[in-house]
Amino acid sequence: MRKGILLVNLGTPDSQAVGDVRKYLAEFLMDKRVIDIHPFLRFLLVRGLIIPFRAPKSARLYRGIWNDRTGSPLLHFSNLQLQLLKLELGDDYVIELGMRYQYPSIELALHKLKSAGVQSIVVIPLFPQYASATTGSVIAEVMRVMRRWPTILPLAVRGAFYDHPLFIDAFTEKIQRYNRGSYDHILFSFHGLPERQLRACDPSGTYCLAQKNCCAVLTEINRNCYAAQCHETARLIAAELKLTRADYCVCFQSRLGKQEWIKPHTSTTIRQLAASGKRRLLVVCPAFVSDCLETLQEIAVEYRQEFIAAGGEELLLVESLNESPLFIRALQEMATGIAVHPLV
Q1: Where in the chain is the domain with CATH 3.40.50.1400?
Q2: Range 3-160 classified under CATH 3.30.1360.120
Q3: Does the domain made of 165-317 have the CATH classification 3.30.390.30?
């Protein structure tokens, strides 16, 4: 009995051309879970303000990371993860890759699994920390597609894996390749979210952003909070590296618009670190399992320039998990539900 596995990442334009970037941004930003405001206001904001100005700029940024041979880094590494997972799982599994936005779509990937005659499907959103705008949106799209099927196959969704031991080990191993003694500080930079999306995950309505440092420690109250899961990921990696709390900090990047986003912001943090005398920063982005625009451009180029302009000497990005054998084993565990032996 063959089993289906669906890996899902965010998505990428088909090319770095302005038209393809515009098409990608339109699908991405019109998702009601990404910009969670009234549909008419979202349409005016996205179509009237964001896309006309952001598409040409984003196209230039994509040209800076696009590979002439392999194309989009996100799509390249996601496909590589799929191929490596196939080698681990063997012929009993059919594995497809879907992107939440653009090609290959979730709908296409599910159609391929259905056509292959699989008897069940496991969906693995490739977002370590849960957010409505990422994992939540993936689940909603899978349900939209499958509810039209005459026979809805047994379905399992692997949710947040922010604390999966092999995921933590994979990032730890990446960081250990660097001489930490030559860096003054380690920065864990996660993708940001509007604060209102954090509040929406607080069923009590009285805890999130109402208590000081409410996200700093993962508890039963905030266990579904994106920011709290980010802090927990950083804490677990730091523990593996034997870092003290003074050795690292947690911040959030990629703000959009004027509304309040999760703090502290990465841009603000690196300027503060430069002002405090930190000269060399090592930056880790554990919200991303594949290198993409947010790591290769935003961190490695834009924030590096900002840090140096503020008085720093060097800011270096730790590459994402990409083809990490430890991460592939984490995916194997999530796909099968069976613990795998550690690498020797």
Answers
A1: 3-160, 165-317
A2: no
A3: no
Residue 276: how many other CB atoms lie within 10 Å: 10
With 0.85 as the threshold, say if the pTM is over it: yes
Q: 318 by DSSP, 3-state: which?
A: coil
**pLDDT tens by residue, 180-193:** 889 999 999 999 99
Distance CA 132, CA 156 (A): 18
Rounded-to-integer distance, Cα 113 and Cα 19, Å: 30
Are 241 and 175 in contact by the 8 Å Cβ rule? The answer is: yes
Which pLDDT tens digit goes with each residue over 194-247? Answer: 988 988 888 777 778 877 788 888 888 888 999 999 999 999 999 999 999 999
In DSSP notation, 29-83 reads HT-TTTS-S-HHHHHIIIIIIIHHHHHHHHHHHHHHH-BTTTB-HHHHHHHHHHH
Q: Where are the alpha helices (DSSP H) in 147-256?
A: 165-176, 195-199, 226-241
Distance of alpha carbon 21 from the chain centroid: 19
Euclidean distance between CA atoms 106 and 223, whole angstroms: 28
- 120-152: pLDDT as tens digits: 999 999 999 999 999 999 999 999 999 999 999
Closest CA to 128 of 50, 191, 179, 78: 191
